[in-house]
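User: Hi! Is it possible to get a structure for several chains at once, not just one? Here's what I have:
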Amino acid sequence: MEPIPAPAIDLISLAPVLVLAVFGIMVLVTDLFIGKDKSALVFISLIGLLMAAISTFAKYNLPVYSFNGAYVVDHLSVFFTFIFCISSALAILLSVDFNKREGIKVGEYYSLILFCTLGMVLLASSTDMIMIFLGIEIVSISLYILAGIQRKNVKSNEAALKYFLLGAFATGFLLYGMTLIYGSTGSTKLSIITNVISEDRIISEPLMLMGVALLIIGFGFKVAAVPFHMWAPDVYQGAPTPVTAFMAVGPKAASLAAFYRIMSETMPELSYSWEILLCVISVLSMFIGNLGAIFQTNIKRLLAFSSVAHVGYLIIAIIAKNSLSSSSLMFYMLTYAFMVFGTFGIVILIGQKGEENLEIENYSGLAYKHPVIAVTMTIFLLSLGGLPPLAGFVAKFYIFSAALKEGYLILVIIAVLNSAISFYYYLKVIVFMYMKEPVKEFNISLTPMTLIVISIAAFGTIQLGIFPDPIIALAQMN
Amino acid sequence: MFLTFLTFLPLVGAILLTLIPRDEEGAIKQTALAFAVADFVLSIYLWTNFDSTTHEMQFEYSVPWISTWGISYHVGLDGISLLLYIMTTFLTMISIIASWGVTKHIREYMMAFLALSTGMLGVFISLDMFLFYFFWEFQLVPMYIIIGVWGGPRRIYAAVKFFLYTAVGSLLMLVAIIWIYKAIENQTGVATTDLIFITNNLELPISPQKWLFLAFFLAFAIKVPMFPFHTWLPDAHVEAPTAGSVILAGVLLKMGTYGFFRFNLPLFPQASYEFMPLIAWLSIIGIVYGALVSLVQEDLKKLVAYSSVSHLGFVMIGIFALNHYGMQGALLQNINHGISTGALFLLVGVIYDRRHTRMISEFGGLAKVMPKYTICFMIIALSSIGLPGMNGFVGEFLILLGVFENNGLWAACATSGVIFAACYILWMFQRVMFQKLDNPKNENLPDMNTRELITVVPLIILVFWIGLYPKPFLKTFDASVEHLLTKVSPDNFRPGTPGSGHSTHAKLIRIEDIARLNQQQKETK
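Assistant: Yes, the chains can be modeled jointly so their relative placement is included. Here is the combined structure:
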């Protein structure tokens, strides 16, 4: 019998995924042999992420296709892999002190983050819908567990359950959409689908469009875009804070990367059908996200709504679908990672054991007890709002110029007006920090790992705001 | 490079202040003052070395910044920005002296002022649109903090209102900037935000010109503030601490008028011409409305704040007279308003520090207990009205001259503002300084001390200097205004010149044109 021919595989280009898988398993195994102190696991996972990040840049002549063109290492995926490694490393660093404080003593925590990172890399690198689905599932399942990792905390359980139910529902939509697209084009490979569309060989156009719509719904759930954002505030609030930060960045970036591949790269010629849909989603996300955030009194919920709004901005990049949009997506996600981890790092710092201090009121008078923390928080918040000279501004400038290049003037105007709205609630936090008297004593323990994360994030936010050139050049290389 | 050094010097000072322990208030204040004084003294060097015969940018410095996008750090000064730049360093110094009595979080206060100074200076020197926007937004945060932390009872409301108003306006300007960035790339193939390059090469049809003009207009009109966009100003002024008001009136509002000179006029000349009547009428409404509202204010600071709306209306109508006198007057009045209104806020601050109230009805007869104060106040009040021999007169006269050349009706309406100004200022002066001293709380008020005099006297000297010998100032503006006029002069858009199509102005043929036509006819014969 003829052996089934093995598809060509370029192992070097797959190195990040392999490294992450090996280290994920290693963490699991090591966990069996060490006691209650999990520092070794932290160490191993950080090494793993570092090695994955380095191996990302091992390949020079991009793009490299593997598995019969189901997996690609190209510029987009390299950059995103880099973002994932950074964000996961920051998440792990954030967790060290938090887990100690809140008594989360499970070793799986770290391996789940590694596996989730693996899923994100797959998601950003796949050019086949089956592979995309695999990636999404790996990411989602890891996140369901991570969200509920505080087993004794009711909120955490609620978050996990809610996230699981809605996530599973969304996965259904996604899969159905993929099936319909497969049905009308005859392939799951994105490159073949592109050819089918451009040669006008779609078997059934209505089915195809239906598939696209379902895909948008599915991805909308995954990235928490309006009107599929309902889960976000509850899950963000309930999940342990480092996990919230992690969820807000990595998985979102990965889904957006895959979304970008499917929409902008694969089906630009069908854009008449999905463009308007995405415009509506983007505008709604911005408005509902920003207006919703205004009424929040809990900082984690506020940040959840703000992240909904940010997805609105990011979708603009997908709508623009030109040479700038992929690079602006990358740049935005990188800066967003720094801003979000910084903010959540401070949220963790303000909390104490048994008392997380998540109300915005708890920040009253922070500026006079801990001026440096307050200034850093101000930097992150203003950067989220998009104020120069901070990274958030450059990122917004990037996305807006991508959109204006294609003439989406109205969309950009709506987006900038939303930035103005968003300033209102970011300022609200600043008002409490600087302009109100403290309601109670701050009892902040400056835990070193959290401080390291905050410093890295602050450095990134300022650096990318004032000297963004190297990173922009890197993002625009293709 | 020197300009960069001067601009970032205050920021360096602000960063150095973090090293001084919080309780050493003396050292903090002295360090802050040292940086402000150094910055001012060194900025004088710019003026002495300024070549006023050319409109070209001077002290220019350019280095690639975000080269992938063609954005560079490009700075320089010309006649339009030079004096605003020096006024900024000057008023920063004055406000730091005026803040000597601040006790609450003094280190953060001084840091905010120094950072604010860098932001404002950056706005005036930026010759790159991206860089300009960068500084334009950057100065927002320190000012917001200054109002919100050291302000009066409704400070949070005022601070947030100030921030959001400005942010909305400037974000639309950002869209316009990106639009131009794309347009210039399509048109010339060069992706750049360099303002000089764009000013020289951008050619837009009238319709986008109008939209872009409006986007920039909104940003700058909010900042100026022009009539319907002025509502943030009284709140911000009333709640801001004294020094904050000085900077707000003296420099921040000037960033708006400066923006018109730097962006609206040279980039969208035809749109400027088309919007001239609209802006003129808005300015006139602002002049009259501001003056009338000032008349009925009971709070001294609010009175001065509304008078700013009126005065800035003069500046705006001067700019949009689109002729030499008008623009020169507007530029000079920019400086004048910074001096006079800055001084008025300082003086109001002086009695507020003593009585903790600014209500006019609480005072009366102060001339008897505070003679020095009364004299200073009178000089500044008269300068604000525009008494001949003082700075306000020169500026307003030039502006009205320019406007009159353009449209007699506008000039007549605007002149009424001068009369109203005399009413509200003199009436206020009378109620505060003269009349009977019947409030016992005012009987033992100490007169101005040396520190307070140090803040006000230099301004008084400037009042007379500009009033009696304005030539050095006007000469500085001259070449730049002349150059600007070659682009935006209404003559460019009248019939017979390319790019125009306005039959409504067909009758307006200038005498020179007729003379030229006659000459041509003679030659052909």
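Chain B touches chain A through 34 residues (CB under 8 Å). The two ends of chain B are 60 Å apart (CA to CA).

User: Great, thank you!
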